[in-house]
Design a protein that fits this description.
The complex is a heterotetramer of chains A (364), B (481), C (169) and D (100). Chain A is mostly helical and 364 residues long. In chain A, 65% of the residues lie in helices and 5% in strands. Chain A is built from 13 helices and seven strands. Chain A is globular and about 65 Å long. The model of chain A has no long low-confidence stretch (mean pLDDT 83). Chain B is mostly helical. Chain B has one domain. Chain B has a two-stranded antiparallel ribbon. Chain B is globular, with a radius of gyration of 21 Å. Among the domains of chain C are: 1-82, NADH-ubiquinone/plastoquinone oxidoreductase chain 6, subunit NuoJ (Four Helix Bundle (Hemerythrin (Met), subunit A)), CATH 1.20.120; 83-113. Chain C is built from six helices and no strands. Chain C starts with a helix and ends in a 5-residue tail after the last helix. Chain D is an all-alpha fold. In chain D, helix 1 runs antiparallel to helix 2 and helix 2 (28-53) packs antiparallel against helix 3 (57-87). The chains are: A mainly alpha (364), B mainly alpha (481), C mainly alpha (169), D mainly alpha (100). Chains in contact: A-C, B-C, B-D, C-D. Chains C and D meet through helix 1, helix 2, helix 3, helix 4 and helix 5 of C and helix 1, helix 2 and helix 3 of D.
Chain lengths: 364, 481, 169, 100
């Protein structure tokens, strides 16, 4: 009993230990990335003795310190309780959504098999969707409690946008559920270890490229980033729903943004890019299609898997940052049209096609 | 396995299909003349009615026993086809009159609502009933508020929606308790087990039954749950009011009668008393309030409440005669009440609804044909012999007398006498008063004229030859088993 | 679920439900309702209804209530002004509600009888309340209601667009 | 193990709170939310009964109730918006006909 609790705690620590610094680092990567794209020097002050790469470490420590020491301002006429509650409500559901994300297969320690997933829930991916759908409360509360028109506008935009894009996202996930025949993300990841024609890893994107595109669009819209950042859009609404936030609360909103980027990346990796799978790596080591094989101990296999998952996540985070600095912002009606008239019908058609294909495969 | 039985759902599929056809045709039609869409609806309803009638002698269950096609369902299918058809007819003239350019949505929503009614009449499972009710009601909320530039329409929709949803809450909680008691929502199983139930099971069953009763009382606007009806009937577009007063009320009674007189038949002793009190209150309050009205739609709303009271008298009888009388009366009421609303529409013009009773002064003298139609409807509603309303009341009250509810029948007759006063009042104004406004109905409204002809002929025919229709109603009710 | 977890959870649910109807500001009411719904989802988990719990959060807390909040913010509603003249009506309503609850609760709580059905004391089988078991039931026994919901949703979409769209025609 | 009846008691309490809220509040949106409370009380009852009977029917029914609730909310809020365009108030007493 105690050991099990300890194991769960360790897993939680491992996941948070990965997610939180990554979220912090993304702040720096984003600044650097934008500088790179805009062909200018960016974020070069946070360096240690002229070595800019150290700025990453610096940002991880300096940024939180800076935010923590700033004054926490609550505007006059604001709803004090809700104003304080909003950032917590924003951050919490996204963090707990990581609970069902598998970051490796099975680790064997002292004869005990440890499933590298904090909680193997039967409803797996539904749980993630549920938690992500709660994320909208932080936006709505922050927007409403600030007693500020820009905030309110941001909140209204955010609530409409997030429930609109939840639908295509759900449809994309349904297509994946149909494909794998399970709701559990760990099972999905395992199913992607198989090979098509004996050499091609059976990653989800090969079966469901359309679902991938839908999920990517909807995911970015859910995390409210460019080209879908209308709830925050700096040039129109200052910072949208968190205009009136400062200090540690502002940091929490800021963090949530990046944690959302990470969970979307994690989901994309798990659903469409094999999760923790490394091509041709099995529980006992590598077995290549051309016949050769390399035997590896369990711990090495697990480390490789975790590494693979981390690399995939970082890749998709980077991909989202590149998108952000590449694409212009949508207009609001374009945003709604894309969601309701574009992604949603395509998602429906995709589900029907998937179901028919599965039916055809089963009957033959 | 999935138990698909196309026969059972054929009428529902046809009417839903018609709704889809209207929606799709709406994309092809442009311009202000949208009568074609109404025609698609009417033809579809005719096909549905013919198909349903052909299934009169069929008695099948389908979809794992959640739905049944018996004569009872077929009878109501025909009734709803008639009601929806008449509604579409009067709407085709009315929508243009008030300048409501909704396109095909209006017709489609009427038809979807009708599909919900079909489900309510055929449901053999509380969940199917519940979903049918919601489909019908949600469509009706929209219809009530569809005249968006009119404040009263929006307010009526709001009130109808809130009270309707409130009643839904009661119905749903009642269903939950019944599910808890009997481990199923199938009406057949509940009917078998409710009689011998004991202990906590019986407690739950009683709770569920009481909540269902409250829910239904709301839906059929029985006193004291009637307060929404006058405002909603007055505020809604008149064609929608007609639809609510006859179609939706009939559907509510279809489910009410099936669930109480059939499923809860074993506990009839427990609920007839409550229902008798409700019936008395509903009749009396409805009629007394109708006396004081100055707006014809409001008056007809209170009259509709009173008629719900008469119908409850038939349910109190809790026997085949009572059930058949309720079915028969719903048919009669549909004809005469739709006719009355058609006359109201005939007198209205754009921006000039002419719904005050003062506007009726002398109308009968200027437009004798319209006056004769209104006379038939008013006298029939009041229950004057040789018209449909009279035979209907006769069947209702005699069923009550059969079961020893003579006092209830007497209250009913007294109420009819009271109602004579306000129905007669309308006629007095139409034929004996000369008003200053000199309202004249617009000529050249083919659909409205057709509706009036159908309603008048039907009301008279049902009054003179009641036995044929009554036998249909009787065999429909007996098919419940 | 033991009494030790049930009572605090139930108390919280009742407390927030009261918050819904007692708060003067609609936004606060909506938030109390959100918490109530979330806590009910927690209770569903204890009752082995995992999928329903997830749906409760996705559909109810995540979509339906957000729609409420959206409309409240869109219309920029302010707090209600308390009205005195309705006091008698309110007292009557509260009394009626309490009497109703009492009338239903008394026989249920003090009957000393158990509810019909086999399963409370035994632990539920692993397949109970999973997506598979619910889906199987939904697409066989309840397939007709399931299809009806599609019509219902279509009517709702159609109706909402007809009523709320900006311009006529 | 808490007896099933306690859960039903909670459900009935919630239902009553919802019904009382509907009757005492004058704000249309809050009245609407009270109705949602009533529906949720029914959902809780369905889930408890399903657990009691070890049959998932009750849980399936909750699925239908949620659908109905969603449909009602869509239409109801559309009506509220349409009404608000006319009157700029959501007080049931100021809405002329809405007195009951």
């Amino acid at each position: 009993m105690l050991i099990e609790i300890a194991i769960i705690l360790l897993k939680v620590l491992a996941v948070l230990g990965l997610v939180m610094p990554l979220a912090g680092a993304l702040g720096w990567i984003e600044r650097k990335g934008s500088a790179l794209i805009q062909d200018r020097i960016g974020a070069n002050r946070a360096s240690i003795y002229g070595f800019a790469g150290a700025g990453l470490v610096n940002t991880l420590i300096a940024d939180p310190l800076k935010f923590a020491t700033k004054e926490d301002v609550i505007p006059r006429g604001a709803d004090r309780l809700l104003h304080t509650l909003a950032p917590c409500v924003n951050l919490f559901p996204v963090l707990v959504a990581f609970a069902v994300l598998p970051f490796g297969n099975v680790l064997i320690v002292g004869g005990r098999e440890i499933n590298l997933q904090i909680e193997p829930l039967g409803i797996g991916v539904m749980y993630v969707l549920a938690m992500m759908s709660l994320g909208v409360y932080g936006v709505v509360l922050g927007g409403w409690a600030s007693n500020n028109r820009w905030s309110l506008l941001g909140g209204i935009r955010g609530s409409a946008q997030m429930i609109s894009y939840e639908l295509p996202m759900g449809l994309a996930v349904v297509a994946m559920i149909l494909t794998y025949g399970t709701l559990d993300l760990q099972q999905m990841a395992r199913a992607q270890g198989e090979l098509i024609w004996g050499w091609l890893p059976a990653w989800g994107i090969l079966y469901q490229p359309i679902a991938f595109v839908i999920f990517l669009c909807a995911g970015i819209a859910e995390s409210k980033r460019l080209p879908f950042d209308l709830p925050e859009s700096e040039s129109e609404l200052i910072s949208g729903y968190f205009t009136e936030y400062s200090g540690i609360k502002h940091l929490m909103f800021f963090m949530t943004d990046f944690v959302e980027v990470i969970i979307i990346s994690g989901l994309i990796a798990t659903l469409f890019f094999g999760g923790w799978q490394v091509p041709y790596l099995y529980a006992s080591g590598f077995e290549f299609p051309w016949g050769s094989s390399i035997a590896l101990p369990n711990i090495a296999v697990v480390l490789l898997q975790v590494l693979s998952f981390t690399i995939k996540i970082i890749f998709f985070c980077w991909f989202q940052i590149m998108l952000r600095w590449t694409l212009p912002r949508f207009r609001y009606d374009q945003l709604m049209q894309l969601g309701w008239l574009g992604l949603l019908p395509i998602g429906f058609v995709n589900i029907v096609a998937t179901a028919l294909a599965i039916l055809a495969l089963q009957t033959t | 396995m999935i138990d698909v039985s196309w026969t059972v759902v054929l009428p529902i599929l046809l009417v839903t299909g018609t709704a889809f056809a209207v929606l799709l045709a709406d994309l092809a039609v442009s311009g202000p003349d949208r009568d074609g869409l109404g025609w698609i609806g009417i033809v579809g309803l005719m096909v549905t009615a013919i198909a349903s009638a052909a299934l009169w002698n069929t008695h099948v269950e389908g979809f794992a026993g959640t739905i049944v096609l018996d004569r009872y369902a077929v009878f109501f299918d025909l009734l709803f086809c008639l009601g929806a058809g008449l509604t579409l007819m009067i709407s085709m003239d009315y929508l243009g009159t008030i300048g409501l350019e909704t396109g095909g949505e209006y017709y489609a929503i009427v038809l979807f609502s009708t599909a919900g009614m079909f489900l309510m009449a055929a449901a053999d499972d509380l969940i199917v009933f519940f979903l049918g009710l919601e489909t019908m009601s949600i469509a009706a909320y929209v219809l009530a508020g569809i005249w968006r530039s009119d404040l009263r329409s929006s307010e009526a929709a709001m009130k109808y929606f809130l009270l309707g949803a409130f009643a839904t809450g009661f119905l749903l909680f009642g269903i939950a308790l019944l599910y808890g008691a009997f481990q199923t929502t199938a009406l057949g199983t509940i009917a078998q087990e409710i009689g011998p139930s004991t202990g906590l099971q019986r407690t739950l069953a009683f709770g569920g039954m009481a909540l269902l009763l409250i829910g239904f009382a709301f839906k059929v606007a029985a006193v004291p749950f009637h307060s929404w009806a006058p405002d909603v009937y007055e505020g809604s577009p008149t064609s929608v009011t007609a639809f609510m007063a006859v179609g939706i009320k009939a559907a509510d009674f279809a489910a009410f009668v099936r669930i109480f007189m059939h499923t809860f038949a074993a506990l009839a002793i427990e609920w007839t008393g409550v229902l008798a009190v409700l019936a008395v209150a509903t009749m009396t309050v409805g009629n007394l309030a109708a006396l004081r009205q100055t707006n014809i739609k409001r008056m007809l709303a209170y009259s509709s409440i009173a008629h719900a009271g008469y119908l409850l008298v038939g349910m109190v009888a809790a026997n085949a005669a009572g059930g058949a009388a309720v079915l028969y009366y719903l048919l009669a009421y549909m004809l005469m009440n739709t006719g009355a609303f058609a006359v109201v529409i005939a007198l209205g013009k754009r921006g000039e609804p002419n719904e005050s009773l003062d506007d009726y002064d002398g109308v009968g003298l200027r437009q004798p044909l319209l006056g004769i139609c209104m006379t038939v409807f008013m006298l029939s509603l009041a229950g004057v012999p040789a018209l449909a309303g009279f035979t209907g009341k006769f069947y209702l009250f005699s069923a009550a007398v059969q079961r020893g509810y003579t006092w209830l029948a007497i209250v009913g007759v007294l109420n009819s006498v009271v109602s004579m006063y306000y129905y007669g009042g309308v006629l007095m104004r139409m034929f004996m008063a000369e008003g200053g406004k000199r309202v004249q109905g617009t000529a050249h409204r083919p659909y409205l004229t057709a509706t009036l002809v159908v309603a008048t002929v039907g009301t008279v025919a049902l009054g003179i030859f009641p036995s044929w229709a009554f036998e249909l109603a009787r065999s429909a009710f007996l098919s419940l088993g | 679920m033991t009494l030790l977890t049930f009572i605090p959870l139930a108390a919280l649910i009742v407390g927030f439900a009261l918050g819904v109807i007692l708060n003067r500001h609609p936004i606060r009411s909506a938030l109390c309702l959100a918490v109530t719904l979330f806590l009910l989802a927690v209770m569903f988990v204890f009752l082995d209804a995992h999928l329903v719990a997830a749906l409760q959060i996705i559909v109810y807390a995540g979509a339906i209530l957000v729609l409420f909040l959206f409309v409240i913010m869109l219309l920029n509603l302010e707090a209600d002004i308390p009205q005195k003249r309705r006091r008698s009506m309110s007292i009557a309503a509260v009394a009626g509600g309490v009497v109703f609850a009492g009338a239903v609760l008394r026989p249920i709580l003090w009957a000393g009888d158990t509810l019909p059905g086999p399963g409370w004391s035994e632990s539920a089988p692993a397949s109970f309340g999973t997506a598979e078991s619910i889906g199987a039931r939904l697409f066989t026994h309840f397939v007709l209601p399931f299809e009806v919901t599609s019509v219902l949703l279509l009517v709702a979409v159609l109706g909402a667009v007809v009523l709320a769209k900006k311009k006529l025609g | 193990m808490v007896p099933a009846t306690y859960y039903i008691a909670l459900s009935v309490t919630l239902f009553s709170i919802g019904a009382i809220g509907f009757l005492i509040r004058r704000n249309l949106i809050v009245m609407f939310m009270s109705i949602e409370l009533m529906l949720n009380a029914a959902n809780l009852a369905f889930v408890v009964f399903a657990r009691q009977q070890l049959a998932v029917d009750g849980q399936v029914i909750v699925f239908f109730v949620m659908t109905v609730a969603a449909a009602e909310v869509a239409v109801g809020l559309a009506i509220i918006i349409a009404l608000f365009r006319h009157r700029q108030t959501l007080n049931a007493d100021e809405v002329r006909m809405l007195r009951w």
